[in-house]
Amino acid sequence: MSAIAPTIPVIAIDGPTASGKGTVAQRVAAALGYHYLDSGALYRLVALRALRAGITPDDGVALAALVATLQPRFADRITLDGEDVTDAIRREEVGVMASRIAVQPALRAALLDLQHRCRQPPGLVADGRDMGTVVFPDAQTKVFLTASVEARAYRRYKQLSEKGFSANLAALLQDLKERDARDSNRAAAPLKP
Ligand code: DC
Fold first, then answer.
1. Ligand 1 centroid vs 160 CA: distance in angstroms?
2. What is the mean pLDDT of residues 49-58?
3. Distance 121 CA to ligand 1 centre (A)
4. For ligand 1, which residues put their CB under 6 angstroms from it?
5. Rounded distance, CA 164 to CA 139, Å?
């Protein structure tokens, strides 16, 4: 991080999956002309790569090593190694894998620098689980956005259906409950206000 970075304002928006924090964060960033960091997308990109490479979620060293070669491009679409992965990383199996690998302290540490480098003038809106607690503890504004697990499962169901993916509401509800428990109870940077 550069010496001037702490003077650049950060708005941290944390919360559980499918709470709508991404939508809110993007709108706030657009309204203020700030940069936007979707930290969940970073975990999803690593998850996608790990699934393709056959790396298991308990292999923290191999997962952290994947980050060194990660050069994502975030614009309207997200590209990885020249491939448009915008839709691929939103698949439910990738989200579940992201939540499973996110318990690894080595991976979280490896992703820190990438996230800090997003703090550019005139400011940053960062969305995730640990933006206000770990990544940008000096953020000027910290928001914790949540909703009932039922409302979030329905939201995710609509998102997936609109993208043409098959979705089952009961299975999604179960999935979200398991991810909430994993994201909230892990030792490294757990989800908390
Ligand atoms: O916000 P999301 O659903 O795209 O995030 C996917 C997973 O990534 C989430 O279940 C946990 C992990 N994650 C994290 O551990 N820390 C973050 N700052 C963002 C996401």
1. 17
2. 97
3. 25
4. 17, 39-40, 43-44, 95, 98-99, 102, 128-130, 179, 183
5. 37
82-97 pLDDT, tens digit per residue, is 899 999 998 889 999 9
The number of helices, as runs of H, and strands, as runs of E, in the chain is 7, 7
pTM, full prediction: 0.92
* Predicted pLDDT at 164: 86
Which residues lie closer than 8 Å to 78 by C-beta, 6 or more apart? Answer: 41, 45, 72, 84, 85, 86, 89
- Of all protein residues, the one whose alpha carbon is nearest to atom 3 of ligand 1 is 17
Which atom of ligand 1 lies nearest, measured to the CA of 95? Answer: 6
- The verdict on whether omega for the bond into residue 9 sits within 30 degrees of 0, i.e. cis, is no
Q: Atom 9 of ligand 1 has which residue's CA nearest to it?
A: 99
Residue with CA closest to ligand 1 atom 4: 40
On the CB side of 115, how many CA atoms lie within 13 Å of its CA?
Answer: 27
Sheet hosting strand 10-14, strand order edge to edge: 35-38, 124-128, 10-14, 141-144
